[in-house]
Amino acid sequence: MRTARRPVALAVTAVSVLLTLALAAPARAGAFRIDFVGEGRADDVETMEAQGTTYFRLADLSRAFLGTRHWNPLTGKVTLVVNGHRISASEGNQFARCDDEIRNVLRPPLRAEDGLWVPPAYLTDALAWAVDSSIAWDRTTGTVTVIRRWPLVTSATVEGVPGGTVLVLGLSEQAQFSTDDSAGDAVDVLVRGAGLSDSLVVPDGTGLITGLTVDRARRGVLVTAHLADDAGGYGASLRSDPDRIEILVEQGVKGSSRAARAAAPSAPEETHGVERVMDTVVIDPGHGGPDPGAVGLLGLPEKDVTLAIARGLEQALEKEGFHVLLTRAGDEALPIKRRAEIANLAEADLFLSIHVNGWHASTARGAQVSYRAPVPLSLARGSALQRSRFGGTTTQWQHAQDPFVPASRDLARAVHDRVAAAMPLASRGSRGNDLAMLSGCTMPAVMVEVGFATNGDDASALASQTWRRDLARAIARGVSDFRASMRGRRL
Amino acid sequence: MKIRPVHVIIAVLAVALVVVLFALRRGEEPQDVKHGTPAQEDLGPGVRSVVLTFADRDALSTVDERRDIAVPEDKAGQAKRILEELIRGPEGRDVVGTMPRGTTVRSVVFDDAGGVFVDFSRELVANHPGGSTGELFTIRSVVRTLSMNFPEVESVRFLVEGREIETVAGHIDVSGPLPVDQYR
Predict the structure, then answer these.
(1) Strand (E) or helix (H) holding B69
(2) d(C-alpha A117, C-alpha A114), whole Å
(3) Can you tell me whether residue A12 is helix, strand or coil?
């Protein structure tokens, strides 16, 4: 029995050894194409079939992913540095060190005369982690697909708007950007770390933007807006829509503060923590168009009262040296978030929304000034651009006002104190409320409610021209008080 | 084996402990509106003691009223009935109702994640007196009333005629779920 079994055992051993050798040895050399989706580039890498799978030549991967390789002759370890991360791998070890963590790449790398060869999981796990991408490989077609988990610039449009021309860039997700106008006749918008969508169509120029150039730069996507001779300043705006960058190029006005502002240093600049010159105020007359607002006991629609007071306030603030803009100059409908967008687009330093209050009975009365109460992070919805002047990061619309809440509270108090002192109105104080028109504002912002339309005394006062004029002056004094209190302070 | 007094005491204490533990466990059980609290059982079948949130006459704070009302068995039906009672208005003196006249509740839907959708008729917007204060207290009345009567509710979503609205009266964003903690 023992002698009869020996040849069988030997045969089994031999077949096993041969199978092992056959699987371990490279079966055939091949090549895979690496397709970098959204970057418009591809690269070929050498592969070989071994151990029942495909192995990729690390030197080729390093070139394709713009990395560098470092070989330690003592340990045989090869470290690939890509996108600021280090991936160390060595022959016979199926664990790769990725910075400070260990990843299992399922099969050990193989060493051949021409360097180290790595298994598929090295790409789909370790390398994907390092370059922050999704990486998939398809053996039947011989392709590796790399989809960056970075924002893509998906669209670009140029269109005329009142007073200027606007460039709108659509993004797949939030992105950081900066602008540079040092060339003089163009504004460069660098969307940092971004890629280009294959579907992006570069539009023709119109109005103050004569043409657009879109390039893949080393640090992201560079969009250059070529400017007409009569172009003046430009500004990046805060949008309530998520994932958009909007650059408004305005008609040039020599000596205007806006043109001077746009020509200021173009490097990304923090808008918080710097002393802010307060010279531009946006006044928002509440409601308008088909929305009358509160209609009180005397049948006077709120939209008319707010517009009248806003006009009086405009005059009073201009006397105090402010540059004033109104969100609406006539009886127009205006979406609530658009009001904040207008203030952001104008790079306003202060935002004052004028309203008339209302109640379910005639008993409530008096003036109140509200600021936006901070929103807990978990409750926020939507997104927007955080900073408005020279660049920024897209962030949640509800949080745009957060950094300004302390200043908004001070502004509310200053305005309320002046109104309470000057007007024969009951005082309801200044308070934090959840107000939609203030949420997206990237400047101190308050809502002034000048009495209750539903209260007899307040409604009579609201109908008086003299009363409206005095109220506008009181609000203007409060704004001036706030400006004086902010001198030397930082937002 | 002879039974000693100490054994009797231990046995009695053990039984007492079991009874106490059982009672405590019952107390921990979440309140289920279908079974009703003991107070509700006293009211008889189909009647529930509910809390409705209104406001004071100066529009400075909310005022709660308790009331016994006939309700259907299903939870959504109960919520609809409670909101209808809220719209009917307060009974107390110097208490102000916060729902616009003519408003009706088209439907109430609870989801599985603590959210509740309330679909109002167009009068909620069309007949609202306006003002941020009037609007804030309308929202607070609905949110607080639902959360007081259904403690599992975490957020309330306002719909009008089956559609999402941006605001009720032009000041407060109600286009998404309103967290109970923020408006209660």
Answers:
(1) strand B62-70
(2) 9
(3) helix
Q: What are phi and psi of A66, to 5 degrees?
A: 60, 40
Can you read off the two tokens belonging to residue A239? 């949008």
Q: Which residues of A touch B182 (CB under 8 A)?
A: 376, 379, 434
Question: Shortest Cα distance from B32 to chain A (angstroms)?
Answer: 28
Q: Do B130 and A453 touch (CB under 8 A)?
A: yes
Question: Do the Cβ atoms of B173 and A336 come within 8 Å?
Answer: yes
Per-residue pLDDT of chain A (491 residues; tens, 9 = 90+): 444 556 666 666 665 555 554 444 445 578 999 998 767 789 999 999 988 889 999 999 999 998 888 887 777 789 999 887 899 998 888 888 888 778 888 889 998 878 899 999 999 889 988 887 878 888 888 999 887 767 788 899 998 887 788 899 988 877 777 777 777 788 888 887 787 777 788 999 999 999 999 987 766 788 999 998 888 777 765 555 657 888 888 776 433 333 323 322 233 333 444 445 678 999 999 999 999 999 887 888 999 999 999 999 999 999 989 999 999 989 988 888 889 888 887 888 999 999 999 999 999 999 999 998 765 443 333 333 333 333 344 445 667 888 888 899 999 999 999 999 888 777 787 777 778 889 889 899 999 999 999 999 999 999 999 999 999 999 999 999 999 988 766 55
Provide the residue type at A268 as one letter. P
Q: Where are the alpha helices (DSSP H) in A25-108?
A: 58-64
Could A436 and B172 be called an inter-chain contact, meaning their C-beta atoms sit closer than 8 Å?
yes
Interface of B with A in 55-74 (CB under 8 A): 55, 57-60
DSSP per-residue string spanning A239-286? -SSSSEEEEEEEEP-TT-HHHHHHTS--S---SSSS-----EEEEEE-
Nearest residue, CB atoms, B129 vs list A294, A376, A436: A294
Give helix A465-486 / helix A405-422 axis angle, nearest 10°. Answer: 140
Give the C-alpha separation, A104 to A97, whole Å: 9
Those residues with Cβ within 8 angstroms of residue B2's Cβ, 6 or more apart along the chain or in another chain: none
Q: Is the pTM of this model over 0.90?
A: no
* Residues linked to residue A152 through DSSP beta bridges, in sequence order: A195
The token pair that represents A85 in the structure block: 């991360």
Residue type, position A316, single letter: A
Give contacts of B100 with chain A, Cβ < 8 Å.
Answer: 360
Residue with tokens 């102000």: B96
Q: How far apart are CA A103 and CA A122, in angstroms?
A: 9
Q: Which residues contact B16 (CB under 8 A, 6 or more apart)?
A: none
| Nearest Cα to Cα of residue A441 among A256, A244, A238 | A238
What the block records as the tokens of A429 is: 């104080």
Helix or strand or coil: residue A119?
A: coil
Angle ∠(A233,A236,A239) on CA atoms, nearest 5: 140
For chains A and B, CB pairs below 8 A equal 99
Q: Which residue of B has its CA nearest to A454?
A: B129
Q: Which token pair is B7?
A: 């054994």
CA-wise closest residue to B78 among B9, B148, B21: B148
- Alpha-carbon distance B55 to nearest alpha carbon in chain A (angstroms): 9
Is residue A458 a contact partner of residue A364, using CB atoms and an 8 Å limit? no
Contact A183, A398 (CB under 8 A): no
Residue A323 identity (one-letter amino acid): H
What is the bridge-based pairing of β-strands A110-112 and A41-50? unpaired
Q: What are A's interface residues with B at a Cβ cutoff of 8 A?
A: 286-287, 291, 293-295, 302, 335-336, 355-361, 363-364, 368, 370, 376, 379, 381, 428, 433-437, 439, 447, 449, 452-454
Interface confidence: ipTM more than 0.85: no
